[in-house]
């Protein structure tokens, strides 16, 4: 039963990590957009950093769950 729970949590963390990665990439593009306001670009750059932190966190948790499923 624990293996099944860990498998579900692995999938959830993987999906969340992928979502954070997509958001990060979108924010990076906004931050690079010369037509956007400086405040918008700065906010997007900050958000991209937060998204990167979330991406790494979810990916790390997914890796832990993946190992737990193996054992």
From TrEMBL:
<dbReference type="InterPro" id="IPR020100">
    <property type="entry name" value="Glc-repressible_Grg1"/>
</dbReference>
<protein>
    <recommendedName>
        <fullName>Glucose-repressible protein Grg1</fullName>
    </recommendedName>
</protein>
<feature type="compositionally biased region" description="Basic and acidic residues">
    <location>
        <begin position="48"/>
        <end position="71"/>
    </location>
</feature>
<dbReference type="Pfam" id="PF11034">
    <property type="entry name" value="Grg1"/>
</dbReference>
<feature type="compositionally biased region" description="Basic and acidic residues">
    <location>
        <begin position="22"/>
        <end position="38"/>
    </location>
</feature>
<feature type="region of interest" description="Disordered">
    <location>
        <begin position="1"/>
        <end position="71"/>
    </location>
</feature>
């Amino acid at each position: 039963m624990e293996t099944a729970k860990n498998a579900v949590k692995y999938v959830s963390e993987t999906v969340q990590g992928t979502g954070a990665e997509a958001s990060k990439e979108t924010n990076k593009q906004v931050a690079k957009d010369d037509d956007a306001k400086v405040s918008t670009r700065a906010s997007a750059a900050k958000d991209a950093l937060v998204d990167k932190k979330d991406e790494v966190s979810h990916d790390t948790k997914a890796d832990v769950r993946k190992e737990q499923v193996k054992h």
